[in-house]
């Protein structure tokens, strides 16, 4: 139970949960710190790999879109500023996003490092991120580039099917449901996201190549980029990641 000050009373937390968290922290204590950036177009598999890495290496997953939404919902000072910009239809400033990342890094779950997904998207953002980390006496260790052919992405994205209430995802070709168009668990209908179409993908890819490829060059000059073969099955991509961050 959270008290008025937002502090959890540990007496109310079940022992099993306390022990599990304690064991997790002890295991994490021996892990080296890692600060990673995932770069890749939509559908390249970043979201498939981050939950595993997060747990295995005790990192926190900083997906900037989710963090912005959470800050807005929590009405933090930065969240209120972000909401103001969004309400006016403006882009949230780089400074604000960096501020939200900076704030998140203070959480205990981020003690061993983080996976940044969805940021930086431009070289300017990458420079500002480096400056912020430098102030904290730290830096990005590795940038993982989920490299994949655009044509393969179209097949991946347009075949994606989602069970709205649970978030379970299927693919008409690679991971089809047992009954076409129906969720395996609940028997409810599956949907295709409005933006999972070839036309939307095309404009997102154009923006990605134009904005983000210079970011890969920026980090390549620092010698910290590893290009992954993101078209491979998830297990093989995971092995490539583990080799890259050892």
From TrEMBL:
Pfam families: ADK (PF00406), ADK_lid (PF05191). Keywords: Kinase, Nucleotide-binding, Transferase. Transmembrane segments: none annotated. This is adenylate kinase. Its EC number is 2.7.4.3. It catalyses: AMP + ATP = 2 ADP. InterPro entries: Adenyl_kin_sub, Adenylat/UMP-CMP_kin, Adenylat_kinase_CS, Adenylate_kinase_lid-dom, P-loop_NTPase. Residues 160-195 form the Adenylate kinase active site lid domain. CDD domains: ADK. Belongs to the adenylate kinase family. Catalyzes the reversible transfer of the terminal phosphate group between ATP and AMP. Plays an important role in cellular energy homeostasis and in adenine nucleotide metabolism. HAMAP family: Adenylate_kinase_Adk (MF_00235). The keyword Transferase applies. GO terms for molecular function: AMP kinase activity; ATP binding.
């Amino acid at each position: 139970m959270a008290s008025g000050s937002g502090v959890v009373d540990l007496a109310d937390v079940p022992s099993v949960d306390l022990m599990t968290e304690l064991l997790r922290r002890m295991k994490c204590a021996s892990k080296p710190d890692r600060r990673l950036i995932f770069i890749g177009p939509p559908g390249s598999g970043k979201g498939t790999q981050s939950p595993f890495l997060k747990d295995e290496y005790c990192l926190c997953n900083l997906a900037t879109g989710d963090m912005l939404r959470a800050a807005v919902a929590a009405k933090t000072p930065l969240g209120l500023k972000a909401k103001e910009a969004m309400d006016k239809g403006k882009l949230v400033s780089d400074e604000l996003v960096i501020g939200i990342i900076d704030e998140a890094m203070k959480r205990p779950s981020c003690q061993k490092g983080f996976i940044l997904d969805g940021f930086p998207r431009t070289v300017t953002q990458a420079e500002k991120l480096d400056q912020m980390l430098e102030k904290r006496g730290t830096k990005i260790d590795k940038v993982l580039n989920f490299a994949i052919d655009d044509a393969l992405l179209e097949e991946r994205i347009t075949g994606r099917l989602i069970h709205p209430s649970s978030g379970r995802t299927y693919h008409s070709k690679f991971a089809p449901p047992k009954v076409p168009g129906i969720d395996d668990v609940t028997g409810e209908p599956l949907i295709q996201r409005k933006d999972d179409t070839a036309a939307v993908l095309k404009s997102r890819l154009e923006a990605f190549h134009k904005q983000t490829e210079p970011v890969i060059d920026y980090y390549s000059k620092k010698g910290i980029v590893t290009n992954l073969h993101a078209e491979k099955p998830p297990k093989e991509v995971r092995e490539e990641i583990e080799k890259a961050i050892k």
